[in-house]
Design a protein that fits this description.
Low-confidence stretches: none
Strand content: 15-25%
Order of helices and strands: EHEHEHEHEHH
Number of domains: 1
Helix content: 40-55%
Number of strands: 5
Radius of gyration: 15 Å
CATH superfamily: HUPs
Mean pLDDT: 93
Length: 160
């Protein structure tokens, strides 16, 4: 039986930190679904379709990665694709408390789906989509933070 994992996030936009987690997860699991959260409480810069397209572009070399979106409970989505695992990235100790709450709730909802935490590479431990958007908004250098396709999409958003 194939090992299938779900790697959820808002990915607004996807950064090298996200890619680090996705690539490492793709080495461990047979299939990884990178799923964009469609969170109505957030006001994203990129639409869900734009985020799916950007993620698809920057992960096209990873043959076992699929990109999708979902609304609702993550464990329900995981079950729908026969995933037995959720991959979550951790940047710092401060992320752990929030992630522990989410993981505990997911376990209550479906005890058969395990959560695996991957510590991000130290060079990305400060990186967040919010920081990238802020720097891009004011024309700062982001080429070391996001892939070229994402940098181009950000420049287009802020030049319009």
């Amino acid at each position: 039986m194939a090992s299938i994992a779900v790697c959820p996030g808002s990915f607004d936009p996807i950064t090298y930190g996200h890619l680090d987690i996705i690539r490492r997860g793709a080495r461990v699991f047979d299939e990884v679904y990178v799923v964009v959260l469609n969170n109505s409480s957030k006001n994203p810069l990129f639409s869900v379709d734009e985020r799916i397209s950007l993620i698809g572009e920057v992960t096209k070399d990873l043959k076992n990665v699929k990109v999708d979106s979902f609304q609702g409970l993550l464990v329900d989505y995981a079950k729908s694709v026969n995933a037995g695992a959720i991959i979550r990235g951790l940047r710092a100790v401060s992320d752990f408390e929030y992630e522990m709450q989410i993981t505990s709730m997911n376990r209550v909802l479906n005890e058969n789906i395990e959560t695996f935490f991957i510590m991000t590479n130290n060079q990305y431990s400060f990186l967040s989509s919010s920081i990238v958007k802020e720097v891009a908004k004011y024309g700062g250098k982001i080429s070391e933070l996001v892939p070229p396709a994402v940098e181009g999409a950000l420049r287009k958003k802020f030049d319009d």
